TrEMBL record, chain A:
A family per Pfam: HTH_18
Keywords per UniProt: DNA-binding, Transcription, Transcription regulation
GO molecular function, one term: sequence-specific DNA binding
Source organism (scientific name): Sphingobacterium multivorum
Protein name: L-rhamnose operon regulatory protein rhaS
Gene name linked to the record: rhaS
From TrEMBL, chain B:
SMART domains registered for this protein in UniProt: AAA
PROSITE patterns: ABC_TRANSPORTER_2
Function description: Part of the ABC transporter complex HmuTUV involved in hemin import. Responsible for energy coupling to the transport system.
Domain ABC transporter: 2-239
InterPro entries in the cross-refs: AAA+_ATPase, ABC_transporter-like_ATP-bd, P-loop_NTPase
Name by which UniProt lists this protein: Hemin import ATP-binding protein HmuV
Top enzyme category: hydrolase
Gene that specifies this protein: hmuV
The organism of origin for this protein: Sphingobacterium multivorum
A GO MF term: ATP binding
Keywords, comma-separated and alphabetical: ATP-binding, Hydrolase, Nucleotide-binding, Translocase, Transport
EC number: 3.6.3.-
Annotated Pfam families: ABC_tran
Keyword Lyase recorded: no
Length: 320, 263
């Protein structure tokens, strides 16, 4: 695949990269940081390329409106993010949008305005590499793969979505990683997958949110499941047993529980155990040994490390 | 129980609330946090039945909010709103007695006077009973309104208490006291939903925290779970560090100083 970009009003290409589509074991990963400052453009670019993948992160400002031309040759899937905010804004983040697109070679022109700081992130992934990263038959992108097979330009999400904190964090990690060599490649790959996951997840949440409300029976099941967890922290049922007790399937219970209570079954159990532990320790002045037994952790060490993970301090650090 | 399910609320195509789901159980205090314009008051409006969501449902004690008769609803949910306009001259006690309107037909009963006296005492406004409401300070007026809405649901521990910035005009003592009242009521069985700006008050008094941004529920959990540097930054765009109080096991948020350059 070939990726290149230029400002229509200027002669030189901003960058021009030829990237092999498939994975080549010994092909190194190349990183580049370039700053361009020539009227009317101010750019801080980070580029990363390796077989099947090209990443560009660009902070841009323009003195006057210009047109940016981007050309991609070859079948690619792109994950695109644009963050923009007025140059004089002190806030770290402004507005953002993102999408995943399948682009069977494209030439596109975008107009940009002065007085706005743009941060542009794009991961260009060859079709081959993409289908290798995310299994072809994954439910996450079934429809998308179907569209890709037709060979026509398609966006994963009908409308662009807003970048979440997780996505921004992942992008930052991708850009700022100090890792080198093969580790850098692994790191990059894992972060790209993570980023795509967040994008899929947000899109799926969005489409599912239009679903109808919970059925009354399901709400009763969920409330019952919650009560069971609260009452049996010392010897809680497995998720499978819990599902059987409230007469539903394990997968449905997990999905509904998370959606309804906005916490997973596992994290909910931890929450209840920790809140109980707190009152046992602070109000009832029980010993750590007793509390570990009563909250179902069995061994004191298991309890202490779970406690520390939840509260940030260990039971021994409490001041009575 | 208050059950809020997949609420969406739009005005002129702007999504003020998007896919909000949560529950408040008897005895629980839920604090809603969020920056200005995050949708907190809009959510309160939906919870009290004033605003009808475009989709989704609110159930109060097993019954859809939209199916309540106004008089019946008034007995099981009370709202202290952020803006209270009061231009007519009333005596303080008269205003608090208005909280009992849903409960009597023509003249207040002994029970109504008793409740009014109790809530006025609790909110520290008994001394002003005979005074003109308009002659009070902002903080005193806020406490009178609190006494009024407490009187409204005082004898119904299944009720829902909605407090939209109940302490915004109060001094330190009454800020604490009002939140302590809210907690004491929750311990008697009331459900309390409250909007506060101070994250540390939320950490101290709330059982659960729901953090809104752009009308979306971003974080929802116990104070320990949601009050962390990353979450606080995401919601308020401020730098902070969070320490755990080893006496109470409640998180304490220390804000970093912010600098602004005016040049």
């Amino acid at each position: 695949m070939l990726v290149k970009s230029k400002i229509v009003e200027l002669a030189d290409w901003l960058f021009e990269e030829e990237i092999p589509d498939g994975y080549v074991p010994d092909k190194p990963l190349v990183e580049n940081r370039i700053s361009i400052s020539k009227d009317p453009v101010h750019m801080e670019n980070f580029q990363l390329s390796t077989s099947g993948l090209f990443i560009l992160h660009s902070k841009m400002q323009f003195d006057r409106p210009v047109q940016v031309l981007t050309e991609i040759e070859g079948e690619t899937i792109t994950s695109q993010f644009i963050f923009f905010k007025p140059t004089d804004s002190k806030l770290p983040y402004g507005m953002s949008r993102h999408n995943i697109r399948y682009i069977p070679s494209v030439k596109s022109i975008h107009e940009v305005e002065p007085g706005i700081e743009y941060t542009y992130f794009i991961a260009v992934i060859s079709k081959e590499y993409y289908l290798n990263l995310i299994k072809r038959d994954s439910l996450l992108h079934q429809q998308f793969v179907h569209e890709i097979e037709k060979g026509e330009y398609v966006s994963f999400s009908e409308e662009d979505l807003m970048a979440t904190y997780e996505m921004q964090h992942t992008i930052t990690e991708l850009i700022e990683s100090k890792k080198k060599g093969e580790i850098r490649r692994l790191h990059t790959e894992s972060r790209v997958v993570e980023l795509l996951m967040y994008q899929f997840e947000q899109y799926n949440e969005k489409t599912e949110s239009n679903d109808s409300l919970f059925h009354e029976e399901d709400v009763q099941r969920l409330e019952m499941a919650r009560q069971i967890l609260e009452q049996r922290i010392a010897n809680p049922p497995t998720q499978k047993e819990l599902a059987a007790e409230v007469l539903t399937s394990e997968s449905k219970l997990r999905k509904d529980f998370k959606e309804y209570f906005s916490v997973t079954i596992h994290d909910y159990l931890t929450r209840v155990r920790m809140e109980k532990a707190k009152s046992y320790l602070l109000e009832d002045k029980m010993t750590v040994y007793e509390v570990a037994l009563l909250t179902g952790y069995g061994h004191q060490n298991n309890f202490s490390s779970a406690f520390k993970k939840y509260y940030g301090i260990s039971p021994g650090e409490l001041k009575m | 129980m208050l059950r809020v399910e997949k609420i969406n609320y739009e005005v002129n195509g702007r999504k003020l609330l998007k896919d909000i789901t949560f529950q408040v159980r008897k005895g629980e205090i839920l604090a809603i946090l969020g920056a200005n314009g995050a949708g907190k008051s809009t959510l309160m409006g939906v919870l009290c039945g004033e605003k009808k969501p475009d989709s989704g449902a609110v159930h109060l004690n097993g019954k859809a909010l939209s199916t309540y008769e106004p008089a019946a609803l008034a007995k099981c949910r009370a709202l202290l709103s952020q803006q209270q306009q009061m231009t007519l001259s009333f005596k303080v006690e008269e205003i608090v007695l208005m909280g009992r309107y849903p409960h009597y037909r023509n003249t207040p009963k002994q029970q109504d006077y008793k409740i009014v006296a109790e809530t006025m005492e609790l909110c520290g406004v008994s001394a002003f009973a005979e005074r003109d409401f308009l002659s009070l300070s902002g903080g005193e007026q806020q406490r009178v309104h609190l006494a009024r809405i407490l009187a409204q649901i005082w004898d119904n521990p299944d009720a829902l208490l909605l407090l939209d910035e109940p302490i915004s005009a109060l001094d330190l003592h009454y800020q604490q006291k009002v939140l302590a009242i809210a907690r004491a009521l929750a311990r008697k069985g009331f459900m309390v939903v409250l909007i506060v700006h101070d994250v540390n008050f939320a950490a101290m008094y709330a059982d659960r925290i729901l953090m809104l941004k752009n009308g979306r529920k971003l974080f929802h959990g116990t104070p320990v779970e949601v009050l962390a540097q990353k979450e606080i930054y995401t919601i308020f765009s401020v730098e902070s560090s969070v320490i755990m109080n080893p006496r109470t096991l409640k998180p304490y948020v220390q804000l970093e100083e912010m600098d602004i350059d005016l040049d």
